[in-house]
Amino acid sequence: MSSAQVLTPGAGVGVVVGLGIGFSVLMLAIGYLGKRYGKIDATNNDEFSSASRNVQSGLIASGIVSAWTWAATLLQSSAVAYKFGISGPWWYAAGATLQVLLFAAIAAKLKTNAPHASTYLQVIRARWGNFAHRVFCCFAIATNTLVSAMLIVGGSAVVNQLTGLSIYAVIWITPLSVAIYTLTGGMRATLIADYLHTAVLISLILCFAFTVYSSSDIIGSPAKLYELLQKVPAIPGNAGGSLLTMRSREGLVFGVVNIIGNFGTVFLDQSYHQRGIASATKTATTSFIMGGLAWTPVPLLMASSLGLAARALNGFPGMAELTASDVSQGLAAPAAAVALLGKGGAVAMLCLLFLAVTSALSAQLIAVSSVITFDIYQPLAKKPTEKSLFWVSHAAVVIWAVCVGLLGVVFYKIGISMGWLYVFMGTLIGAGVAPVCAALCWKQANKAACVYGSLLGLGLAIMSWLVTAQSLFGELTVDSTGADYPVLVGNLVAIMVPILILVPASYIWPDNYDWSETRAIQAPDELDLDSPAEPSTPDVEKAGFDKSSQDGQVIATLDGKMHEHSAIPKHKHEVPDLDPKTERFTTILSIVLSVLLILLIPAFMCIPKIWSVGGLTAWTAIIIGWMFCSAGIVVVWPVVESRGALLNMASGIVSDLTGRKKM
C-alpha cells in the first residue's frame, strides 16, 4: 500500500465514474440548451467536429488551456521541479508555451488557405497527393497515440497511488467515460466543458499555491520553503548544488528536449488545428496568443508549489518516500498534496487530475475522429453523405477510446512511464514538424524534400537515439533510452534533419503553389448534404426553416422568422476576410513573446548564481499574479464575450418557465 494512499478504492471509482457521468449529463444539457435557444444542432457534422467555425476568442483560449493541460502538465512539471529545482518549472512552462504562440501564424494560414478544410491533413493531400498524405497521417496518429497514452498512464498511476484502485480499472474506465460525454456534445459542448474544467483547474492550483506559501503549518511562506530547500542534498549539475538556481545543466537539457518534443505535439496534433478551424476567422490568431499566455502559469505555479514542496518535505512524517521511478511516474505532486492537506489534498488532486485528463483526452478523441472521418473514410467513400460522415465520426470516438485503453495496458505492462513517454515523443514525431509547417504556410515548399526529409529525419533520429543510449550506458533499457542525453540527441536530429533538407531544396526547386486546390477543399458544393440536419422542403416549411440564397445554408428558426447565421463563402475559392496587418502583427508578437520566454527571461533569471529568499518571494508573487491574469483571460473574458448569447438564452428559459412567448 502506498504511503500516500489516504482514500479508499471506492473513492477512486466515485471520482472517475461519478465525474464522468456528471460531465456526460452536463454535455447533454449544453447540447439541449444550444439547440433549444441558440439554434445549434450537434447532429450536423460540421458543428460536431468544428463548432460551425465561429467560436469567439475567449472560449477558444479557454479550450486551448484545457486541451494543453495534460496529466504531464501537472505531474511532469512537478517532477522536474523535484529533480532540478526552480529551473524545471520554468523550462517546462516556457518550453511548452512558445509552440502555442507560434501556432497562431499556422492557424491564420489554415483559415486563409483552406477555409473549409476539417483537418490539416486534407491540405497536405490536396497539395501533395496521396503518398504524402499517408506519411503525415502516420505522424498525426503517432502524435495522438503518444499524447493519449501519456494521459492514461499518468492519470492511472496517480489514482492508484491515492486510492489503491486497480490501475487496469482506471485505464479502462477513464477513456470510456470520456468517450460517452464527448459523443453527447461535439466540439462546441466540449469547448464549453473545457471552460468549466479550466475554471475549476485554476481555482484548485491557486488553492495549492496558497497552502504552500501561506496557510500550511509545515511550510506556510516562501521563507520557510527557502529554508527547507537549503537543507536538500546537493544536486549534480546545479550551481552550488542548489535547487534555488536557474544555472542547471540537466534543467537546460530538459528544456531543449521539452521545446522540441512539444513542437510535434502542437503542430502535428489535429486537436489544435481543430481549435483554429473552430475559431472565428478574425480572432483565430489572437485566440492562440491569449491561450498560450494564459496557460504558462498553470504548470509554472503547480510545479513551483507542489513540486518544490515535495522536495522540501522529503523525510517529513506524512510525506511518502519517493523513488526515482515514483518521480518519473509523476507522483511527487500528489505526495506533497497529501502531506500538506491530508484527505482533502488527495480529493483535490484527484479532481484536478481528472479534469486535466478528461479534458485533454476529449480533445484527442475529437481529433482522431476527425482524422479517421475526413482523411481515411472520406477519400475512400468518394461521395460521402453528411449522415455517413456523422456516424463514422461518432464510431471513431468509441474505437479510439478502446485503443487508448489497450495502449494504457500495454505501456503499464512493459514498464513505460509518463515521464519516459514525455521525453521520447520528440524523437518519434519531431521530424514531421517542419514539413507540415511548410505545407500549410510556404508556397515554395518542395514536395519531395518535405516528404522524404521527414522520413529520413525519423529514421536517423531513432538510430541516433538508440546508438547514444548504447554508447553511454552499454545497454538498451527503459532507463538508458529515457536518460537525458540519448533523448536530447534523438530530439535534435528529428527536428533538424528535415529543415536542413527542405529549406535549401525549396529555394533551389521551388513549387510556387497558388493554394487554389486547398481553398476548394470541402467547398459547399463538394459534399452531398443528404443529412437529417437538413430537412426536406415540406419539413422546412412546417418547421419555419428558410433556404437563404444569401449564403447557401439552411437557416433554422423555431418561430419562422429570419435569423442571421454565419455564412459559408458563396464560391469555393473565396478567401476569408483576414486583415493582413492583423495577421502580420500577431505573427511578429508571437515571435517576440517566444524570444522573451526562451532567451531573455531565463538570461535574467540566471544572473544570481543562487536565488535569495527575497528573489524566491518576488518570483512567487509574480507567478501567482500571472495566474490571476490567466483567470481573467479564460474565465471572465469568455463570459463577457458571450454576454449577448447568455442573456438571450436566459430570456428564453424564463419565457419557457413562465409560459410567456419570447418576442
Automatic annotation (TrEMBL):
One GO cellular component term: plasma membrane
Keyword Transmembrane: yes
Subcellular location: Membrane
GO molecular function: urea transmembrane transporter activity
Primary location: membrane
Mode of membrane association: Multi-pass membrane protein
Source organism superkingdom: Eukaryota
Keyword Protein biosynthesis: no
Residue ranges of the TM segments: none
Gene3D superfamilies recorded: Sodium/glucose cotransporter
Key words of the record: Membrane, Transmembrane, Transmembrane helix
Family (UniProt): Belongs to the sodium:solute symporter (SSF) (TC 2.A.21) family.
Protein name as catalogued: Urea transporter
